[in-house]
Amino acid sequence: VQLQASGGGLVQAGGSLRLSCAASGSFGSINTMAWYRQAPGHERELVAFISAGSSTTYADPVKGRFTISRNNAKNMVFLQMNSLKPEDTAVYYCYVVYMARSYWGQGTQVTVSS
What we know:
Layout: E1 2-6, E2 9-12, E3 17-24, E4 33-38, E5 45-50, E6 56-58, E7 66-71, E8 76-81, E9 90-98, E10 101-104, E11 108-113
Parallel strand pairs: 2-11
Antiparallel strand pairs: 1-3, 3-8, 4-5, 4-9, 5-6, 7-8, 9-10, 9-11
């Protein structure tokens, strides 16, 4: 499974971005899909995940601002980020679980200016 993330960039505080991640390769149904982020000097942390049945969970700092979704037919996961804050600045990584194995995307930079 190869993951390609896109959609990062520079945005002013209060703005929005939509991240996308496409999974490619020969495989069946993907189980959990998620987004993590890592800010400089910090550990990688979970932002949101979505189950195969589309149940979602969010980290407290992003609740009410971020929305995770998936397109199972296209093996894609998305992260709609609204009301962005400077503290959301980080490299965002997509993550999937398939056949009990974990896979990471290459990361996409999100920078929020104040």
